[in-house]
From TrEMBL:
GO molecular function, one term: carbon-carbon lyase activity
UniProt record, GO biological process: carboxylic acid metabolic process
N6-(pyridoxal phosphate)lysine PTM positions: K412
Protein name, per record: Pyridoxal-dependent decarboxylase
Highest taxon in the source lineage: Bacteria
Record domain L-tyrosine decarboxylase C-terminal: where: 523-630
Keyword flag Lyase: yes
Entry keyword set: Lyase, Pyridoxal phosphate
The organism of origin for this protein: Rhodanobacter denitrificans
Cofactor(s) this protein requires: pyridoxal 5'-phosphate
Entry keyword Lyase: yes
Amino acid sequence: MSAAQPFPTEEPRDHALDACFLGPYGENDTLLEKLLVEFLRDHVYWRRNFHPEDPPAIATTAAHHPDYLAFESRMRRELHQLSAALKKSVPFHSPRYIGHMASDLLLPGLAAQMLTLPYNPNNVSEDAAPVTVDLEVQVGLQLARMLGYPHDPAQPACAFGHLTSGGTLANYQALRLALALKAFPVALRAAGVPELPLPTDAWAAFNLSTVDGIALLEAWQRWLAAQPPAQRAHWLQRVEQERIEQRGLAGFFAAHPQLRVPLVLAPVTAHYSWSKGLKLLGLGRDQLELLPTDGMRLDPAALRDTLERCARERQSVLMCVAVLGGTEYGTIDPLDAVLAARQASRRRGLDFAVHVDAAWGGYLATLFRHEDGTLRTRDDVAADYTQFPTPAVHAAFAALGDTDSVTVDPHKLGYLPYGSGAFICRDHRAMALLAERADYVFHAATPAGYLARYRSLGQFIPEGSKSGAAAAAVYVTHKVLPLDHAHFGRLPRATVRAAEGFHARAQRFALELADCVHALVPFAPDSNLVCLALNPHGNTSVATANAFVRALHDELRCDPQQPLQTREFFGSVTSLRPEMLGPAQTARILGALGLDPASFVPGDDRLLILRHTLMNPYLIDRENGISYIDRYFDFLGRRVRALRGTAGSRP
Ligand SMILES: *Cc1c(COP(=O)(O)O)cnc(C)c1O
């Protein structure tokens, strides 16, 4: 059994977290119920007070009519069926759930969303959402501050962010924006706009830095505003005709044969939303070049080589994606090295956007922010952990503010309901290029101008109609738990500490079961995802190891045929592929597991491993002195021995 003291007793319990969630046992049910009833009544009074002189349109006797009663009973029957069916849902709330990137929901967000739903605001524009559109724009500024972007709308170079259905769409928005900004100077040249400081050729125009591209856009807007109305319309139309958004990829690149369709560079660990994004934008998956990693973190040397090759071949690059918290291993790419590689590439005339896919790890940035918004030193952050943050991880978070755009998923480590992803760009002025209606002459120099502009949110986002309730949920949560280490940061702090405990326990587990299996954490976790590779002792075949891990996972996954209670724990799996790992890492991991690299069967050339997402805030239950991490490893040990048929031979 687990040690009597699963965690240091001197660690004080964080009471601030007690009211954050409904809780694994529904402990805060009365709090949520009170809030729901209170604000439902509030909503009803609002309806009644709109024009109290209007009499009730539904008769007070209506509820006695047979048709009414029949409808009600049908509705009840269906709702009960739904409610019964939903009992098969995945128990995300439980500390026994350590599978995918999901957990309990923060009460402020859940309550704000439920409160807002009956008002049904549509954040496509202020006409349909006079309140929640503003909240969404504020959410963008809250996230910008967390990331280290300029967040004062009174400043011209303020960041801008908006919500999306999820990280997938936010990544797509990053591609759209980068392409618009990259191609616009080429259009200005092609249109022959006079008096502007235009680059000398199409290649140079296609390789302006983000800063220079935005400066040129601004110069063009100023020039246009100074033209007489007839001239203005003429030039606006001429430039529009040359834009990539107007001509399409085919027309644009046919008109500029000296330019090639640009590449998107991303590490092999990149989420599959990048493949979707390239398909959606029409760039094609051929243009997604996946770069090798070192221990699942983008390899800066490989990036530098690729950029040198691209500069030499005059192959343009749209964007380099760095992942902040990989979906499989939670690893963190060296953003600082990516930015340095861009700096070097710039000198060779090849420039591109740097986007951070922080769909998973974005909220970890709260750990690195003081309450006043400044960056915490590594030593300061490290005082709370045994390993975290490595110098590389700290450097990556410190560099966030110098990137061009970021994806963050409030519905992952923000503990908010689906679907809330977020896209944030460092300088909002480029967003003018995404506007469906070219509103060039408009200047957003004042905070009022900034807000007024983005109240027509539908002009800029990939979606149209969208949930204002989701925006309210994110906004209220960020107000209740500001995005710094002293507030929101307490949550990721608990999860990173749990991951460190999990990692240490996994290493002990490997020793305890050394007579029975080889067990290995293949990559030291950068954040709060920890994987575990397993191979039965004496086995050298990858196929047999995979069958073993699959059998273990069969007891760790959702099975709609089985009652939920038959499951002790929930985990997930992922796979290690040699082409993703590279030869050195493949040899290291297979060697440590006692597996023969030659046993990789073509078509099955992957090694299945267990994957654990440690985001539940109650993995260590201080109230009852229970560590669900210890319980999980006890369970896993029993299953491993049972599968090996060595249940009786425990030392
Ligand atoms: C989850 C994830 C995505 C996709 O986000 P969705 O919200 O599922 O659309 C993209 N990138 C990374 C790194 C992710 O973890």
